[in-house]
Amino acid sequence: MVQNETENGGASLLLWLGIAVVVLVLIYVLAKTVKAKAGAATKPGAKFRPSLTAEDVEGIRFRPPRLRERGYDVEQVSDLLDQTVLELRRLADENLRLQQQKADPLSQPVLVGSPVITPDQVVNRKFQTLKIRQGVSPAEVDDFLDRVVLGLRQWNAENAKLRSELSGNTLGNAS
């Protein structure tokens, strides 16, 4: 009986060791993958991949608010999203022209246009709330606007980095 318990204990220990090895291997592989992806995004010449595009904003649809919840005014939210689409298109166009100028330094310099809307303006935007169950879900709008702020900041940072590279200032590459 004692020998049987020892054999079961040994088999159990081997099973746990096997599981631990598998988990460690998975962690190692995952860490390598994440590091490789992070490294690719920061390498010189790596293509910028925005987290948000004008098409993403145009395709967003919000549900009505939950039961007993007041919703945001649809017109006000739509106006902000329209401004966001215009700004994302402006930033994407500026980015393309900056990349073209980087490829052909003799081309016309890229003039920086005025922003249609800034990330800070999105953060500070307040919407009128309507009667219960009218409008759009505040939680969904707020979550999406967090993505908008992040996306606008990424576009602005990428364009600033390109302008810095074009001006010969390498301090912008340290980020």
TrEMBL record:
Q: Where are the transmembrane segments?
A: 13-31
Q: Which InterPro entries match?
A: DivIVA_domain, DivIVA_fam
Report the leader peptide range: none
Principal subcellular localization? cytoplasm
What's the domain of life for this entry?
Bacteria
Coiled coil found in the keyword field: yes
Q: Where in the cell is it found?
A: Cytoplasm
**Alphabetical UniProt keywords:** Cell cycle, Cell division, Coiled coil, Cytoplasm, Membrane, Transmembrane, Transmembrane helix
A single GO CC term, please? Answer: cytoplasm
* GO BP term, pick one: cell division
Decide whether keyword Cell division is in the record: yes
Q: Which residues form a coiled coil?
A: 74-101
The record's comment on protein family reads: Belongs to the DivIVA family.
Q: What is this protein called?
A: Cell wall synthesis protein Wag31
